[in-house]
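I have been asked to look over a protein record a colleague put together. Alongside the sequence sits a line of tokens, each denoting a local backbone shape. Please read both lines and tell me whether the tokens look consistent with the sequence. Take the sequence as given and treat only the tokens as open to question. I have pasted the whole thing underneath without changing anything:
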Amino acid sequence: MSRLVTRDFLEASFTGFRALFERSFQTAEPLYSKLATVVDSSTARESWNWLGSVPAMREWTDERVPGALRTNDYEIANRRFEASIEVDRETFEDDRLGQLRPRIEELALRAASHPDELVVGLLGSGFTDLCYDGRPFFASDHSQGESGPQSNLMVEKLGSTSLKLAIEALMSFRDDQGKPFGLLPDTLLVGPDNYFTARELLNSAGIVLAGGTDLERPDGNALAGTLNLQVSPWVAAEHWYVLATQYPVRPLLFQWRIRPEFSAVTRPDDEHVFSSDSYRFGVRSRCGAGYGLWQMAVGSDGSA
């Protein structure tokens, strides 16, 4: 049965769709907030030039000796994003709004997960893109102050030996005064192609060594329970990452300039509605992502 689509009806529908969008957006469980330090931004770009080492504790024998934070020229620009759908007026006239609700919910989920694409995508680009110290985020020659050369880059495929080496490497990083950071990794991030390999490494009670058989008693698995497993479709097939994400500054940075906003073009006298006989619903946001501390990540491109 057709209905009379009045301005009041459209406004009520828009209010309901906005509430549906907000509810779906808030209930989503995106990954980015677990991997990145999330902040609110107030300008077109944010400076993160304070990234570096905080002085270690020292014995206080005379006067305080403030350690100046090493400044690095590192900025993250906010970019603008959108997603929109167009709906024929007949959908409203023929009372088929139930068909539109799932699209609004999907739009909300897309908006909520979009930061995942940006943040996880940074790790994939980290083998070439530069971080605050002027080196690729994953590099074999990081060095600052008295740290000496350090590497958070690997090329081995994911396996028992390579994962242990990655964990040990992250725990051994030193700050610009040559003192241990003392970081403990807590996360293994992989793509769908490495999902079951990662599960076996982190959950199995034992691992059968190469050349062994199922009839042999497997070696105890020292990796069991050491890391939380995270899986993202934005991780390339052979890539995998060991991360320390439980600290105030995380391996990656994400800044919100404008959080996702739901809007609509539904006024009958709007030029678009008049000419196309359709309504538009969309979401808009402004945000940016960049690299935090490379010392909190070890990455492998699996090229070996």
Summary: Residues 65-71 have pLDDT under 50 and may be disordered. DSSP finds seven helices and 13 strands in the chain. The first helix runs from residue 7 to 27.
